[in-house]
Amino acid sequence: MKSYLLETLKELALLGGIKNKIEISSFELAKQLSTSQQTASRYLVELDKKNMITRELGVKKQLIIITKEGEKQLYDEHMQYQQIFELTDRIIFKGKVISGLGEGRYYTEQPSYVEQFKKKIGFIPYPGTLNVEIEYVEKNKLRLLKDQRAINIDGFNTKNRSFGSVKCFNAKINSLDGAIVLPNRSHYSNVLEFISKFYLREKLKLKDNDNVKIIIYFKN
Amino acid sequence: MKSYLLETLKELALLGGIKNKIEISSFELAKQLSTSQQTASRYLVELDKKNMITRELGVKKQLIIITKEGEKQLYDEHMQYQQIFELTDRIIFKGKVISGLGEGRYYTEQPSYVEQFKKKIGFIPYPGTLNVEIEYVEKNKLRLLKDQRAINIDGFNTKNRSFGSVKCFNAKINSLDGAIVLPNRSHYSNVLEFISKFYLREKLKLKDNDNVKIIIYFKN
DNA sequence: ATTACTAGTAAGCGAGTAT
DNA sequence: TATACTCGCTTACTAGTAA
């Protein structure tokens, strides 16, 4: 939706247009929007065409009520502002399932990691990680993670090699609980590794390139 | 601010631009906004000129951070959406002080009203009401009041005449507590009558035509 | 790769005005 | 009174491209 139409719809909502019919002339609306009567009239016609509002045109003013569809548009916008200013204990990522190189399995089966997962995040992960490639531009959001307190999984050494420490965040993938694992010694990539007590590809019927939504939660 | 600039700023905020420098090319931003690279570039230049963002232009991408001023713009917008969807226990009116006909004083001095005010809204009003004329278009908001549970002040009869019942809402005027009085037997006008235990014109140094902000609270 | 200028085109605006 | 059309003007958009 064009941004000026959303602005107009918001103005109507502020006047109570979601629950009530509001009585407003295109001239009055124009004043509210700091524009001309003609433009306000055009906006109303456009909003009407897009089924965002319903109008009862009288001889004088018009009675306007915001439709369910219009309310949904506004609510979506509201949720974005909530995300910016209120829901600062979480970050939402959109991404798609990709295949990793199978290393995830090797790591998640190390007894020392497993023990810590059980103790610190409360479950023993199904072997392997689900790799989710986030949209390139969302890499910026990853930077928000570094200021957050994470669950720390300590590194350790075996006879053969050493394993580095890892950061975890409680997370959800398509509403299912689990955690995100971020190796401490690596740059942020655009791939998130999700662990869960379930075999996710089966449980959520996921296959490569499926779109998923991941919510990462912070401790406060 | 132009609505498309606000939309752009919101997009940058969603990527974490309020607290962090975000790394984004005009091409990527264009994708997010479903527009062309040139337009995205122009938006960024405009936002920069208006001091909504600060940019560090590198050879490749650019590092962007939203300024305090930009954050304030977004927050104002957020508060409007809060008003629409969250703060449904209140309505905010802007208006200006006008002189009434002095009837307010007559009413607020009736012992039966005074007694009920004391009991039901917790204070004895300073004699008289402060009349606030709300902007014409905000009359629509008054309609929201009728669905709300109000504090009811009963009517009564004296030897000489009868006094009708009255609805009250707890309210604030410029942050000072008081109440709004709405006669039950009258159409909604564009004048709100505010009562307070203080003489408001003195306490708040108000004179005719001064702009005031009234918040009306509902019981839930 | 980028950013962002120029210039031609498209969309938006509002004065005038019909209804 | 209103709403909303036409039409000339302005603003916004994007392809091409320089830096």
Offer a quick outline of the entry.
In chain A, 35% of the residues lie in helices and 28% in strands. By secondary structure, chain A is of the alpha+beta class.
List keywords for this structure.
homodimer, 220 residues, alpha+beta, Arc Repressor Mutant, subunit A, Elongation Factor Tu (Ef-tu), domain 3, 8 helices, 12 strands, elongated, DNA-binding
Description:
The structure is a homodimer of 220-residue chains. The first copy, chain A, is of the alpha+beta class and 220 residues long. The first copy, chain A, folds into 2 domains: 3-78, Winged helix-like DNA-binding domain superfamily/Winged helix DNA-binding domain (Arc Repressor Mutant, subunit A), CATH 1.10.10.10; 89-217, Beta Barrel (Elongation Factor Tu (Ef-tu), domain 3), CATH 2.40.30.30. The first copy, chain A, has helices spanning 3-14, 26-33, 37-49, 68-85, 103-108, 111-120, 139-145, 200-203; strands at 22-24, 53-57, 62-66, 90-98, 130-134, 151-153, 156-157, 162-163, 166-173, 176-183, 191-195, 211-217. Chain A has a 6-stranded antiparallel beta barrel with strand order 4-5-11-10-9-12. In chain A, strands 1-3-2 form a 3-stranded antiparallel β-sheet. Chain A starts with a helix and ends with a strand. The A-B interface holds A 3-4, 6-7, 10, 13-20, 22-24, 28-29, 31-32, 74-75, 77-78, 80-85, 136-141, 143-144, 147 and B 3-4, 6-7, 10, 13-20, 22-24, 28-29, 31-32, 74-75, 77-78, 80-85, 136-141, 143-144, 147. Chain A binds a DNA duplex (19 and 19 nucleotides) through helix 3.
